[in-house]
Structures are given as structure tokens and as C-alpha cells.
Amino acid sequence: MTTVCVFETGIGWVAFARADVGVSHLLMGHSSEPAVRSALDQRLVASTEQLAETAQDELADRIIAYAQGDPVSFDDVPLALPPMTPFRKAIVRCLRQVPYGTTISYGELAQRAGRPGAARAVGQAMASNTLPLLIPCHRVIAAGGRLGGFSAPTGVTLKERLLALEGVAAVR
After folding, report:
1. pTM
2. Is 94 a catalytic residue?
3. Quick one: 58 and 100 in the same domain?
4. Mean pLDDT of 2-28
5. Are residues 27 and 56 in the same domain?
6. Are 140 and 103 in contact (CB under 8 A)?
7. Which domain holds residue 37?
8. Active-site hit among 126, 137, 141, 147
9. Angle at which helices 119-127 and 86-95 cross, to 10°
10. For residues 5 and 163, what is the distance between their CA atoms, to the nearest angstrom?
């Protein structure tokens, strides 16, 4: 069974789905509850057999605290990852080790994951990240400190806001 938690934060509406093994999807930055529910439903429609709502959740409390500027780490949250190539698994593993308040370039992350020169592949992996915050793709920036992209509804505006919460100034 998959449980779903939907709640409002200082960074917009957030929803996540948790299967028995861990969190499978997290969406954030939506302007309303119906918008985030619709986006989550579209992602889950093919993968979920049974859903249950949760009223209160420890992860929700941590995300709310993060959105209020508290230095929260999510590196201990169990994830239910989709099938991935060994390189993408390495990207996820390395990125989850990037601490709160720090950034890493696409190129540096590629190097840490064992494929120097594969910055574009890192960008593609970040664009398909179904677990932002938990796999902190907002901490991955382009060369020269530029923000790069972000796939949340408000795009780089939300990425910039998340980094600002962590005390990081980035260049647009």
C-alpha cells in the first residue's frame, strides 16, 4: 500500500507518496492543494494499486521545518527509487552526501559519481528527479555559480528560494 501526505508549507503545497520500502515521489512548490494532488495523481496513476491518506507524518513535519529555515537533513529518509543505471545510482548516492547549505556543480557531481565530463548526464538525471529535497537537486548548480534549471512548477525561482533558505546565494 502507498500512503500519501499533502500539506502546505512556506515553499508552497507539498505532496509525497510512501511505499513500504520508502518515499517514491515528492512534489513541491505548487500553488494549491488541488494542483499538487493532480500532479501527484498523474505520477502515481501507473504505479499505485491502493492509496491511503495520512494526516500527520514525521517527514511532513521535517519538510515544514525546512521551509521555515531550519537546517534539516533528509539523508536518512528511506527512498523507493525507480530502476536506474549504475551511473544514476552513483549520482543519487553522491548528491545525498552534499550537506545542507552547500552546492556542487554538475561537472563536480559527475566526477564524484565516476564519470568526469558527464555534466549533461547529471543534468538529465536531475531533470527526472522524482524526490527533490530528499535527493537535493536544488544544490546542483551550473559552472560559475549560475543556478541552472529546476523542474518544480516555479522553476529556478523555487531553486533560488531553497538555496536562500540554506544560506546560499546563487547567480541567475
Report:
1. 0.90
2. no
3. no
4. 91
5. yes
6. yes
7. 2-67
8. 137
9. 80
10. 24
